[in-house]
Amino acid sequence: MTGSSPGAHMHEELTSQPETWAAAANLRDAQALLPAAGARIAVVGCGTSWFMAQSYAALRETAGLGETDAFTASEAFVDRGYDAVVALTRSGTTTEVLELVERVKGRIPTIGVIGDPESPLVSLVDEAVLLPFADEKSVVQTRFATTALALFRASLGEDLTAAIADASAVLAAPADEELRDAEQYTFLGRGWTTGLAHEAALKMRESSQSWTESYSSMEYRHGPIAIAAPGRVTWQFGAAPEGLQAQVEATGARFVQHPIDPLAELVRVHRVALERSLARGLDPDQPRNLTRSVILDA
Question: Signal sequence: where (predicted)?
């Protein structure tokens, strides 16, 4: 693909993820700027960043490192005695995030995890963790989100070697045309992978205008399984609840699950989203009705 081809930026960015994750894992000084163990924190973002915030919150709290809540910035309840607020944003220009940080400035310490080092958020937060090497040109976000989560995971003490290897293997695997051409997708996750499921569904909607849904795995049987049918896909991130695969396959739907790091499985979704978009004659670098950052009029 060339820079002028549809999806060229998304292709370059999604295929660079093993390298950007490795870079994030080595940013020890940046990781040290994140809230220390025991701190009670809120993590905020919009869209993709909100879903990454959900995954980080679940990982941090499950690891016993402190109460951690995730909010979309427009609906955040941060006046609850938090020790710090982490604001995640690729552009650093998202209106709701800027307004929230301005509102708590001087009262609650803020840490920004930001892709664009020239953005206005850099000077607003108390500490800025900058990831310019993961910033993107495509409107549809891939590597910044996963690189930020890789940074968070490394800061919690995780070794990302296996995740990086799994992502490289996913990128080298042949395309799955049956998966690309499915009628409908439902993504499922448990614990920290629930955020990944929500993000996977968003990626498919943004890039290819597809019918996608997402749920926590245990909630799927409380109604959503009603849409499972031949030609449709139920896609699990991480381990599935006992018996779920058999129940899905009994509907005629395809059940997708791979024994790899769930963040690498999101890279597989990125590939399918790009392939599906191009097969439909779309350009995920400039998707319908979307811009790189949501900047609202005053």
Answer: none
